[in-house]
Specification:
Elements lengths: L1 E7 L19 E4 L2 E4 L20 E7 L5 H10 L2 H13 L3 H13 L18 E2 L7 H5 L7 E2 L16 E7 L2 H4 L3 H6 L3 E5 L7 H14 L2 E9 L5 H14 L5 E6 L8
Parallel strand pairs: 7-8, 7-9, 9-10
Antiparallel strand pairs: 1-4, 2-3, 5-6
């Protein structure tokens, strides 16, 4: 199959070995004074080793290669101890490789190896939290109470594995909706897990489709409500959700709510 994999320029490589500790998968070894990729199976193609090469000898290319095998990699990882296991799991998580992360965790569980608790390594503002009941009394909201029950809310920052997605009703909202619609918390957000992005200004819409699909695949989602503005550029909000549902192979009820630029709910 054709996929991303690292390539080492043997003329540039000095054999310093600085790339080795940053490849917990065990794909690299120093042989005859040069760094070598010993197996396509062990290289995930994410390139954690690239930034550690002072000679600039490593790059990521796309070529025919054996499929990366996470289970085989874990056989090598566990022999190197807990610190290597943690480094590998952090590596997968930081690159958003949640499918591989799940395979690695399942491998540990199947072989009765303790699954380490990974520390939050991002900024405090992106740390996952659930801090309120799923649904708030409507009168309390009318008095100014928030119906938000999880953090973060931006799709770019969300962890698809977060437990608050289990059996959740989702509100996928364009950024502007909450600013335009005064009853956003009471009428739209209450009782739902919030996912926010801008379909026009955010550039990685393909990544958004994949991330939403991961959420839909990994959790039992009861319903999806899409909140968009009436302006044409906001129709991308609905399209991204539809593509994610197709990619995930899920048939989940979707309701679209449209807010006008004067702040009224159109449907």
């Amino acid at each position: 199959m054709k996929r991303k994999i690292i390539e080492i320029d043997q003329e540039k490589c000095t054999g310093c070995g600085k790339c080795i500790p940053n490849c917990p998968e065990g794909a690299l070894q120093i042989i005859d004074g040069k760094a070598r990729l010993i197996s396509d199976l062990f290289c995930d193609g994410l390139g954690a080793c690239i930034g550690e090469c002072p000679a600039g000898a490593i790059r990521t290319v796309e070529r025919e290669a054996e499929p990366y095998d996470e289970a085989k990699v874990m056989e090598t990882i566990v022999k190197q101890g807990e610190n290597t296991i943690i480094a590998h799991l952090k590596h997968l998580r930081s690159h958003g490789e949640f499918k591989l992360f799940d395979i690695a965790v399942n491998y540990l569980k199947e072989h009765h190896i303790p699954v380490p608790v990974l520390p939050h390594t991002g900024s405090p503002g992106s740390q996952m939290k659930r801090f309120a009941a799923q649904k708030v009394d409507r009168e309390a909201i009318a008095g100014g109470a928030s119906a938000l029950c999880q953090w973060p809310v931006q799709l770019k920052l969300l962890n698809p594995g977060a437990e608050y997605f289990d059996n959740a009703d989702l509100l996928v909202s364009a950024d502007c909706v909450a600013h335009a619609y005064g009853s956003f918390h009471r009428e739209l957000l209450n009782g739902r897990i919030l996912i926010v992005f801008c379909p026009k200004l955010d550039t990685d819409t393909d990544g958004y489709v994949e991330k939403l699909a991961q959420i839909l695949r990994r959790h039992e989602i009861r319903s999806v409500t899409v909140a968009r503005m009436e302006v044409p550029c906001c129709c991308g909000t609905v399209m991204i959700v539809q593509k994610a549902l197709e990619l995930a192979g899920k048939a989940i009820p979707v309701k679209v709510r449209t807010v006008s630029i004067d702040g009224s709910l159109k449907d």
